[in-house]
Amino acid sequence: MPSQAQITEKYSPERFGQQFGWAEVTLNSGETWQGPLTLHWAEDMVILTQQGQQVLPVTQVSHFRVRQQQLTETFDRKKYYDFGPMRRGFYPGNARFEGVVSEPFRLTELPPTVSRVFHTCYWSQTPTDQNFQALGFFEQLSAGPIMLLCRQALVMKTQTYGVAGTYASQRWIAKKDGLYLSHPDGSVVLLEKPQDFYNCFPAYVAKIQEFARQHNLGFTKAHEVAYLVNYANSLAAEQQP
């Protein structure tokens, strides 16, 4: 399976747009626009409906906030979380969120008030060539200064099976979420394995591992990784004068 940075995004981009009933887009100029928005991941552009149709490529956008996602497919109640608390620094045991547990953040429906936040970042789509970077949209899933980001892409999957002594294969296109860590200097690191995470917090590996064991957290579910990022950031903050 190719890594997220190696996934081609050329397949059926017209099916890869996410529509939102409300958005606030901040341009690089500082100007702010509001209106319904469609996010096209494959092309890294947004289409904003505000007194007409405004097509905004990633090079013009600083960041944007969206609500009221228009679902075009089945809502996955096991997967979708409200990352608002995580963007404010929540993790299990954080005294600032006393009495709050993780379960309420898992959504059984998609309330219109739930916000999602996206940033524009430079990233390398080819891990072997870090010198070639382009701008792309990433969703913010945690607080900073090191932030957990998510980016969607399309991946071609293949399954081979035997039929009456012969072999056949089936190919289909699926969505894949890639998780990244964004550093204050603007660099973006793809999280393919736990070691990629530890490399970003080398001074706190033992504490992070103990925290993950204590709360049964892994490195594949976005909300769990957001908890780990916020916890690791809190350890770094404690060391600051």
Structure, described:
The protein is of the alpha+beta class. It has one domain. The protein has 4 helices and 11 strands. Strands 1, 2, 3, 4, 5, 6, 7, 8, 9, 10 and 11 form an 11-stranded antiparallel β-sheet that branches. The N terminus is likely disordered.
Summarize the structure.
The protein has four helices and eleven strands. With 241 residues, it is α+β, with helices and mostly antiparallel strands. The model is unreliable at 1-14 (pLDDT under 50).
Describe the secondary-structure layout:
Blueprint (H helix, E strand, L loop, with lengths): L16 E11 L4 E3 L2 E4 L4 E5 L3 E5 L3 E10 L13 H4 L28 E8 L10 E7 L6 E17 L2 E17 L5 E3 L3 H7 L4 H11 L6 H17 L3
Antiparallel strand pairs: 1-2, 1-3, 1-6, 3-4, 4-5, 6-7, 7-8, 8-9, 9-10, 10-11
